[in-house]
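Researcher: We are triaging several targets before committing to wet-lab work. For this one, the compound of interest is manganese (II) ion. I'm pasting the protein sequence and the ligand SMILES. What I need is the predicted three-dimensional arrangement of the protein with the ligand bound, expressed as structure tokens, so it can go straight into our comparison scripts without reformatting.
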Amino acid sequence: MHYVIGDIHGEYDQLKTLMEMIAPKDGDVIYALGDVIDRGPEPVKVVRYLMEHPNFRLIAGNHELMALECLRFLMQDITEDSIAGINETDLALLADWQINGCAPTLKGLRALTTEDRSDVIEYLSDALAYEDIEVEGVRYILVHGGLGNYRPDRPLWDYSIDELVWEQTDFDRVYLDGAVLVTGHTPTQLIEGCPAPGYVYKTEGHIGLDCGACFEGGRLAAVCLETGQVFYSR
Ligand SMILES: [Mn+2]
């Protein structure tokens, strides 16, 4: 079976609840659709849980991208050179990450040994940009944000990581005829015309999975691609 989980954002308890409901078997594949860190209380615990369960595949979100851009200079040993090397671009990246809820991620990383911290960062940097799979004869494109600067003739590998993780999908548009775009990033609470805000939004060519787990009144959601069954943490 293939499962896809929406934006976890540090919601470890909700992830555990969902995993008990899914009860994956050996050989099942579970995709985490990006934004596993930041905002919620236990982002690093979430990442370490994914690392310990080899049936998880991590797809990159904009929060992983922001974290990696900052950790590149935050994690180096402090020397005169390293301080002099932090430029305005770095500081702007850090400010961006900060307003996007980096505090619990940094707190979790600080509590780790140097080696465990490196392992977490390495795991995040190995995240997939997207996944293109066929399940029961249906093509699914799993991508955190969407296909920025979309053109039907543009191959998936041609999209930049920024175009994939920052794009807000247009749920009224069918991309890649015959394929289903499975996306997170845009909480269904914010999708205009979504009949059940805060729950999974399925419409022609789309499955919108971000149910705003880290927000009040939100929840974590997963879908099984074979059966279409949807799971909610609350
Ligand atoms: Mn996002």
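Researcher: Any quick observations?
Model: The mean pLDDT is 96.
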